[in-house]
Design a protein that fits this description.
Blueprint lengths: L3 H20 L1 H6 L3 H6 L1 H25 L12 H18 L3 H26 L4 H23 L6 H28 L20 H21 L3 H26 L3 H27 L11
Amino acid sequence: MFSSTNFWMGFAGLLYLAAGVSILRKEIGAARGWEKLIALGCVFFAASLATFAPEHFYGGPEYIQHMAPAWMPVRSFWPYFVGCALLAAATSLTVRKFVRLSSTLLGLMFFLFVCMIYLPSLLAHLTNRFAWTFALRDLSFAAGAWALAGLHSRVSSPRLSKWMIWFGRIVIAIAAIFFATQHFLHPEFAPGVPSQKETPAWVPLRPFWSYLTGAVLLVAGGAMLIDKKARTAAASVGLLMALLTLLLYVPILAMASQPPQILEGINYVADTLLFAGAALLVAGAMRQEAPPYTSL
């Protein structure tokens, strides 16, 4: 039923999720309102990164053949490098050490994915909605990481910090608005980060949830874009994606019976939760005070 890849992806994700919640339990318990959810941004982000890491180890050279540009040398090396980088970043965010350094480098890695993989594909297929989705998705992951780095750079580099947080807000806003249009145009597909997965038959009122998701993303994205109650808007996007992960994609994963279906389900869970984490990291970066620690 489980392949090695599926087992280790699920195990890593659950391990880092549990560790992150445990480490932050006092902070979460002391927070009020939106702050409880926003505090989970790092946890969601780290758990998702950890989930994706084993896929790079077990996919190996075969995985990278379909992703890396043809001109890249030593193609078999890069999936293992990226897997190690994802685990290192997930560990840093979970134990809250070297957060500024790890989030800066993580944002750079996702940004390079966009420039080297998704942007060329987008330019070659401008009418393909998924080419836009993939580019904005990974750019949003970079935005969340850089927003976190900006939060932890307020004392040492206030001007750079401002621009990193601004970048995070604008990118998440644009992604939310684009994703909203896809939900209105294609309500038959599962809500969340747009994909080719149709909403399962067991979900009642299937088109309604896509329209509702689109409406929330559109309003929240617009609020972030014009910087009106942007922090609440970003947190709303994070809440929406976290709820979709829990109420839609976790059940889809639980109902999967074959290894390819399980792998697909794990990817949907981690992808949606990673976007939730990115939005919550942007929300957290927009708070007025600097964090109580400013690690590298």
